[in-house]
Amino acid sequence: MLDDTKEIIHTELVQCTEATSSGALEPLGLRRGLTELLDLGLEVEVMTTDRSSSIRKIMREQYPNIQHEFDIWHTAKGFRNKILTKGKKKDTAILLAWTRSIVNHMWYTCATSKGNIEALQNRWKSIIHHVCNEHEWRDDDGTLHQCDHPPLTAQDQRVRMWIGKDSVALQALSSLVLDKKLLKDLNQMALFKHTGPLENFHSAMLKYLPKRQAFSYHGMRERCHLAILDHNENIVKRRQATTVTGEERFKQVFCKKSKQWILKKVYTPHTTDFVTDLIEKVLENRRNPNIPFKMATSSLALP
Ligand SMILES: [Zn+2]
């Protein structure tokens, strides 16, 4: 999926018999797909994936010229679960009151760093000061740091459940925030890339590839292509719907997970015009006396 337009430009379908284990399928598909795109002359500057160790290794060793970024959503979700686990004990339960703020801080950190790794690291670490009601501090070498937010009001100061500086809870949080592996991963999140739209495509794909049904390799491949045609058509064409007076439309939705009402954009209806185009192409080929009726579509050089 292209990062700027969210259009899908290439897909690989790997059969389980091609790899030694299910875990080897993804690296195989990645290598194959990326090689094909590079061979076509596409210049890939940045590639975003989840943090799977096999993919990291391939990117590091075989594609050192491509900047490998990690998806913020997966990392933030994993970090949230870690805080929830730590907060299970009585003396660290206060962390639960901070979970949402800390996870939001991770998003904010990556969103505002614009590729600056040093700024990212400082901003991220600031959370262990902020939760103690400390908004200005010096690090070991004497450099002064401060939080990005405006000064807190007396009301803000009162309502927050500040964490004690010498508490077990802060120690537990610090161990998570300053985890070496996480700090290293964050360096690959400074461009604030997401694979969320790709996950959305994967769920939309189920319309063409329902999981409870089995398909042949070719059937699966063509269904996957149909899902992509559908996706690409709508990602390009669909706009936010407007009212008669031209105002952008939104709807209120209750989010069960966060237990909050949120505003969602209302889009223009989904279309499948590509189906008409495909049917016309099929009829065109059927009328063409040079194309035998039983010739497989894959052997045709279609435009
Ligand atoms: Zn602060």
How would you concisely characterize the structure shown here?
Helix content is 47%, strand content 9%. The chain has helices at 25-39, 53-62, 72-86, 94-113, 117-125, 127-130, 154-159, 168-177, 180-186, 196-204, 217-237, 273-287, and strands at 46-49, 67-70, 136-138, 144-146, 250-255, 260-265.
Describe the structure.
With 303 residues, the protein is mostly helical. The protein has a domain at 72-189. Helix content is 47%, strand content 9%. The strands form 3 sheets. It has a two-stranded parallel ribbon with strand order 1-2. A two-stranded antiparallel ribbon has the order 3-4. Strands 5-6 form a two-stranded antiparallel ribbon. Helix 2 links the parallel strand 1 and strand 2 (67-70). The longest helix has 21 residues, at 217-237. The chain is elongated.
Q: What's the structural blueprint in terms of helices and strands?
A:
Layout: H1 25-39, E1 46-49, H2 53-62, E2 67-70, H3 72-86, H4 94-113, H5 117-125, H6 127-130, E3 136-138, E4 144-146, H7 154-159, H8 168-177, H9 180-186, H10 196-204, H11 217-237, E5 250-255, E6 260-265, H12 273-287
Parallel strand pairs: 1-2
Antiparallel strand pairs: 3-4, 5-6
The protein binds zinc ion (ZN).
The site of zinc ion has 4 residues, from loops.
